[in-house]
Amino acid sequence: MDTISRDNNSSILPVAGVIVGVVALVLSAIALVKVSSANRLLAEHDAKVQKIEAIESQVTTVGSTADKAARDLVGLKNATQEAVNQMTVMIGDVKASIVKIEESQKRPAARAGASKEPVVAGPGEYVVKAGESGAKIARSHGVSLSDLQAVNPGVNWNKLSVGQKIKLPEKK
pTM score, two decimals? Predict the structure, then answer.
């Protein structure tokens, strides 16, 4: 009996080995499919991570740009306020000048000879008195009327006013 049981045991072992081998092949095929699927998912996730990193870089750049724009905006606001303040001062100065001009226009202009101090003639000058004419002044100083008119080109001889200064020509 001993020989028969050994023969039966020995024929089961190779079958069991084949079964274990087939099961191992099936399990390795399943593992290979799972590893391949895991590698594909890992590649997809890696691409997504790269996209997220690129977006993060862009967000950082945009954040820096926004911070710079905010600082520039504050600087622009301050410069604009300073310009408005300067314009306000200038407008106030212009307004004060306009008020001075308006006030000076309201005051009567001081007329020649109307000052409290008497007009004094210097050397070679004469101060017109009431009722005098160019001819009378020329005769009284021993000069011709044409010489008197020549040295006083801007004088209106028809409208001489009291206190007006005129130049006297040199006697010949």
Answer: 0.35
